[in-house]
Amino acid sequence: MPNFTKIALVLACATTALAQGYGGNNPYSNNGGDSSNNPYSNGSNAGYPSFPSNFHLMVTAHAVLATLAFSVLFPIGGIVIRLASFPGLWWIHGVFQTLAYILYIAAFALGISMAQSLDKMGETHAWLGIALFVVLLFQPVLGVLHHVMFKKYSRRTVWSYGHIWLGRAAITVGMVNAGLGLRLSQETRVFAPSQGAVVGYWVVAVIIWLLYMASVV
């Protein structure tokens, strides 16, 4: 297993309290219940993928890490840079966004691995995740250009608007895509979250998004 996947799994273990909605009533879990109708069990059902024993942990890690990135760290970094004012503020902003992106890289790697195992690469959740990964590659460069040009001209430039609006769009799409991931998990019934967990996510995500938008305004 690649090192970044191991890191992602370790990080997820530290945050499993955020994912208690997973696995309890999973018809494809091997823990208890009748697995005779389970196409994802390790039984003799031919034609279905055989998942590794840590697949449940991979699902949880993917969900937790991506949620921490797009619903906690990215928005907080955006709010801080808008509302605070002190020397070195852009470093604080950079730390939040860099940490968020590292978590998302780990979540992305796990997500691609699972999507390939489940043959779900064509799903909206998967290609939006790929698009976000590619778009966010440009954000550090745009951020540095924004900072340098702002210091030089004391005003926003095209690089500034590119960095700002790309970031706002990525955070919004990332939050929505997390919800799509929860729905996909329910539809495929692969370690599906409870309906209460899904509703809870949307409530928290909407509140954080509104706070983020309020800081923008």
Automatic annotation (TrEMBL):
Transmembrane segments: 55-81, 88-114, 126-145, 165-184, 190-212
GO cellular component, one term: membrane
PROSITE patterns reported in the protein's UniProt record: CYTOCHROME_B561
Subcellular location: Membrane
UniProt-listed Pfam families: Cytochrom_B561
InterPro entries: Cyt_b561/ferric_Rdtase_TM
Coiled coil: none
Span of domain Cytochrome b561: 25-217
First and last residue of the signal peptide: 1-19
Keywords, ordered alphabetically: Electron transport, Membrane, Signal, Transmembrane, Transmembrane helix, Transport
Full protein name: Cytochrome b561 domain-containing protein
Species in which this protein is naturally found: Friedmanniomyces endolithicus
